[in-house]
Amino acid sequence: MTDKIALVTGGSRGLGRSAALHLAAKGVGIVLTYRGNREEAGATVAAIEAAGDTAAALQLDTSRTAGFAAFADQLRTTLSATWGRETFDLLLNNAGIGIHAGFAETTEEQFDQLMNIHLKGVFFLTQRLLPLIADGGRILNLSTGLARFSLPGYAAYATMKGGVEVLTRYLARELGPRGIAVNAIAPGAIETDFAGGAVRDNAGLNQMIAASIAMGRVGLPDDIGGAVASILTGENGWMTGQRIEVSGGQNL
Predict the structure, then answer these.
(1) Which of 126, 201, 209, 212 lies 20 to 30 angstroms, CA to CA, from 60?
(2) What is the value of pTM for the model shown?
């Protein structure tokens, strides 16, 4: 058991939910955010509490930087009321969406939507939360295997994640004096509802991608949730500024 507290953005579903459950299983207190589905968030909190751990859910739209100050105040209140703490220890910048569009067809609206959530939101939410992150804490930013290898239809999405990887190195450099380790995790193809659930639901696509993976299958949410928990709670606090791909060996 630990006395750590984690903030997991987009923690009510998909990879975020798996990460929250794996962290809670290690005794980490969880604050998860959700954008609109309160019931889904409540179900995740209930699952964590049923296992004897502690969690809370807060609403947050990571594409709207104007709401970050109020969110930080709400988080501060939650930390105090639930854990008697003024800070938290672990930040997982996970919230995101997927848009599949060829480069030639990508609209400026789609580009801006992806940028606001995946890059601008991560940058300014982390900035806003710096006073609440304990010295010696850890930050993990979600990237993607698509920042290393290319798959037509994800140019804009992968561009944002490439920016996140550069941001990760700068955060590691600037937060190092506080003992805060900052890394990026880059999942490969995972069976979730991401981008409409294509990898999960399209058998032909699933098999095609599996053929490019050394371990012979696409990933499951728990493959990433377990890796997140290991990175954020394991004995690797000296590791910082790194991109860690968890893809089963995709496109090697």
Answers:
(1) 201
(2) 0.96
Active site residue 157: yes
* Strand segments (E) across 35-191: 55-59, 88-93, 133-142, 181-187
Q: Which helix (H) or strand (E) holds 6?
A: strand 5-8
Question: Residue 167 belongs to a domain with what CATH number?
Answer: 3.40.50.720
Q: Taking Cα atoms as reference points, which of 127, 29, 31 lies closest to residue 76?
A: 31
Structural domain total, the chain = 1
Task: Report yes or no on 252 lying in a domain.
Answer: no
Structural domain harbouring 191: 5-246
Q: Give the model confidence (pLDDT) of 205-242 as tens digits.
A: 788 889 999 999 999 999 999 999 999 999 999 999 99
**Residue of 34, 154, 157, 170 with catalytic role:** 157
The strand order across the sheet containing 55-59 reads 55-59, 29-34, 5-8, 88-93, 133-142, 181-187, 243-246
